[in-house]
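Chapter summary example.
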Amino acid sequence: MKRIFTYIFSILCLAAFSSCIENDLSYPRLSPDFVAFEVEGQESVTIDPSAATIEIVLGETADISAVKVLSYSTANDAEIIGGMPKVLDLTSPVKFVLRVYKDVEWTISAVQPIDRYIKCDNQVGEADIDPLKKIAYVYVTDNQSLQTVTINDMKLEPEGSVISSTTGFISVNGESKPLMEVCKFPMTLDCVLMRYFTVEYDGQYIEWSVKFLQKAVAVAVDSVDPWTFSAFVNGVTNGQGTPSLEYRKESDTEWTVWDDIKVTGTVVKAELTGLEENTAYAVRLTNGVETSDETVFQTGTAQQIANLSFDEWYQDGTAWMPNSGPDNYVWDSANPGTAGLGTVPTTPEDSDVVKGKAARLETTTAMGLLAAGNIYVGQFAKVAGLGAELDWGYLFSARPLALRGYYKYSPKTVDMVKDPYKDLQGQTDQCQIQILLTDWDDRFHINTSKKQFVDFDNDKNIIAHGSLVSDKEDSDYVKFTIPLVYRNSRTPKYIVIVGAASRYGDYFTGGKGSVLKLDEFELVYDPTELTEEEYEQVFKNIL
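The structure predicted for these 543 residues follows.
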């Protein structure tokens, strides 16, 4: 998993004389956790320390009965009682006991979803497929003749399988006789009666039964997913005429025709663009024969957050704070935890800027430990042993497409390292900028002493995420655009933006003297302000 955030809360005067007592008292609370796990053929892995479970999604061609373990790691030097086998049989869950002063039983399980489908002209919805009984039901519109169904593609077994032949029944002199045909899609078949398809996979011949049925379909708009300047429309047609969308502002009377639509079977998809923000619209679907009911939707607002320009700063004692004042608290940094040690890694930059002021983040040292500059949307909470507690997030309900701004980086050679990044010694340091949209119930509480970080890969409350990493020396500010890659279309509750001068500073790994400057950030909502490639990144997982 990625735990990418930089702060230096490990260097407090109190810790200098109390760390031994703190550590002695905290040892029994150390949790025996898996923090990484990888097997051959996996698509994804979800590690849940609270439930002590690892859930693996395997690819279609993986042998679930003999899964090779590629790598794993545990927190707090946890011991796996009995060791980890090189190969696991995950046809059923397996259990392991991890030990750090106490024993915790972990369960590792796997699923292996297989993508099965049948696609034909004038199809209504997805086919109903029963992999156990090896039978499928395919629905077509009521004006589609079952005597001439065009099947465009079919997949009924794992990747690599082949639909080799099909058997149907024809009438010969009044008698029904079977007729076998070699499958080569697309192909038009008589599907009045049940058809049988032979699938070849891994040396086996598997027989499937497929029944085609007619179903009445009404032209309709099924759903609208409105964004700020655009909207995704899903609808259904019945195979008649030429489908098109019509839309208007709810306050207008005249409709505008939108012909740029995609029709697959009876499913209609379109993206309306060029809309106005925070405006009510109506949309309907027509095929020239029938017209659906109207569906009303509201576009979003191009919400920004305070001090994205980094022009506003105030001082709390010796600590610089990246806000206009204590009553407008949006941004924070490591400064509240380190100012007392005489180091303030995050400061305003007045001279080397794009406009106004900028944020200057520098990786330094204090008391012999790495102190990496950072800035984030959220609030420092308190010192916690050798680390700190802080809350990530600011209330936010919009759905931007990207984060845009300027950065300038001057990296140094990594000269201070800790596990698990000791292999970075002597390499060029890296900076990072990232953005998160989430629907956490509350701000995410980070505790560096307990290694409680956001799981960027597996946190199910993350709606969208974008990241930029660089190890390049910049002679001037670089303009950047970070597309927000959406994982779902839910409405956010919180936004997090993070900048770090040393990517692995939270592991006390980085290069002393690395400096990252940030200026003139902006949240982007208009699709026309992104390149085609950037825009595709935003929606690649949800369209």
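To summarize the output: The CA atoms of residues 361 and 373 lie 4 Å apart.
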